[in-house]
Amino acid sequence: MMNKLSEEEIQDKLKKFDGWTYAKKSIHTSFQFENFKEAFTVMTRIAFEAEAQQHHPNWGNVFNELEISLSTHDADGVTEKDFKLARAIEDIVESTN
Fold it and tell me: Any idea which UniProt keywords this protein has?
């Protein structure tokens, strides 16, 4: 099991993630895309990465908007696993621009 990060550790790590915030034991972000197809394409790519990492986001999609929250349920908070997936998500989104 991964160790839960302290709020100080989380805030420090978030400095490297533009647009991500910490609240309610999770890190959160949102993205806006050109259209639904682009949003869904990114979601599909994230889904494959999440499966590969065996770590899955809590997310929602309405048309061209995607909201993502990451936490590690076993740790009841945020761990390194969340930041690893967040980095992969950032890379996926960046590669679509």
Answer: Lyase
pTM, two decimals, is 0.94
Q: What is the 3-state secondary structure of the chain?
A: CCCCCCHHHHHHHHCCCCCCEEECCEEEEEEECCCHHHHHHHHHHHHHHHHHHCCCCEEEEECCEEEEEECEHHHCECCHHHHHHHHHHHHHHHHHC
Its CATH class, for the domain covering 25-96, is alpha beta
Could you tell me the residue ranges of all domains in the chain? 25-96
